[in-house]
Automatic annotation (TrEMBL):
EC annotation from Swiss-Prot or TrEMBL: 4.2.1.150
Pfam families, per the entry: ECH_1
Domain of life, per lineage: Bacteria
Keywords recorded for this protein, A-Z: Lyase
Example of a GO MF term: 3-hydroxyacyl-CoA dehydratase activity
Organism name: Candidatus Flavonifractor merdigallinarum
InterPro entries: ClpP/crotonase-like_dom_sf (IPR029045), Enoyl-CoA_hyd/isom_CS (IPR018376), Enoyl-CoA_hydra/iso (IPR001753), Enoyl-CoA_hydra_C (IPR014748)
Catalytic activity field: a short-chain (3S)-3-hydroxyacyl-CoA = a short-chain (2E)-enoyl-CoA + H2O
Lineage: Bacteria, Bacillati, Bacillota, Clostridia, Eubacteriales
Pathway where it operates: Lipid metabolism; butanoate metabolism
Quaternary data: Homotetramer.
Entry similarity comment: Belongs to the enoyl-CoA hydratase/isomerase family.
Gene Ontology biological process terms, A to Z: fatty acid beta-oxidation
Protein name: short-chain-enoyl-CoA hydratase
Length: 258
């Protein structure tokens, strides 16, 4: 894809937003390229986990203001629906997705990171939803995901002030789960991805599905999802292998994803 690169390293799909001359800003073509790459990752049975990062010194600096400047109301809605649908596809990918936020994650970039399951940041990363300072609202799910991640009060503060925060503040409020020196970030993301890859993948995917579905449901419905998933995994060969290794005190496990 022109603006989104995909390579597989073992069982990890590495996705790189590759428009560094524009700080990886999201225009319609970048979104289309990302949409197609996500389909490839979903279809690849050898890709267990995805890592998303940005080329150069930016993760994604935001949506492309040059493209948006002349939008009419209908243009804006179409663009929001396009990006929103791509990010929903990312969020609901059956495989876990880790954001390795290497630099600016502003506007659409912050929204992209929030659609991922786990966020790791470089010490150089900066996060924010600066849209109201441009006369617009977040358009790719920022008003919906940020309150779910950091709470309503902090999300209101960040969105309504257009404040940009550094990585240490993002860690403090729970927007990211770890911060690393820039030169270590991708290695740490790959290390985490491989730790997930080492587990039983049916169980990993069912666990992700339960978390995602449960966030949209009441506790009773969420627990019903979990009971169903638990039943599914109890019928797998991987359950037999995992429990067998435990009972036999074997450290090595040979999961077959069946």
């Amino acid at each position: 894809m022109g603006f989104v690169k995909l390579e597989r390293q073992g069982h990890v799909a590495l996705i790189t937003i590759d428009r560094p001359e524009a700080l990886n800003a999201l225009n319609s073509q970048v979104l289309t390229d990302l949409d197609e790459v996500l389909d490839q990752v979903e279809a690849d049975e050898e890709s267990y986990v995805a890592v998303i990062t940005g080329a150069g010194r930016s993760f994604v600096a935001g949506a492309d203001i040059g493209e948006m400047k002349n939008f009419t109301s209908s243009d804006g809605k179409r663009f929001g629906v396009h990006g929103g649908n791509v990010f929903l596809k990312l969020e609901n990918l059956s495989k876990p997705v880790i954001a390795a936020v290497n630099g600016f994650a502003l506007g659409g970039g912050c929204e992209l990171s929030m659609a991922c399951d786990i966020r790791l940041a470089s010490e150089k990363a900066k996060f924010g939803q600066p849209e109201v300072g441009l006369g617009i609202t977040p358009g790719f799910g920022g008003t919906q995901r940020l309150p779910r991640i950091v709470g309503v009060s902090k999300a209101m503060e960040l969105i309504l002030t257009a404040k940009v925060i550094k990585a240490d503040e993002a860690l403090r409020i729970g927007l990211v789960s770890a911060v690393y020196p820039a030169e270590e970030l991708l290695d740490k993301a790959m290390e985490l991805a491989n730790a997930i890859c080492a587990n039983a993948q049916i169980a990993v995917r069912e666990s992700k599905r339960c978390i995602r579905m449960g966030l949209q449901a009441d506790i009773h419905t969420g627990c019903a999802f979990e009971a169903e998933a638990f039943g599914v995994t109890c019928g797998t060969a991987d359950k037999e292998e995992g429990m067998g290794a435990f009972l036999e005190k074997r450290s090595e496990k040979h999961f077959t994803n069946r």
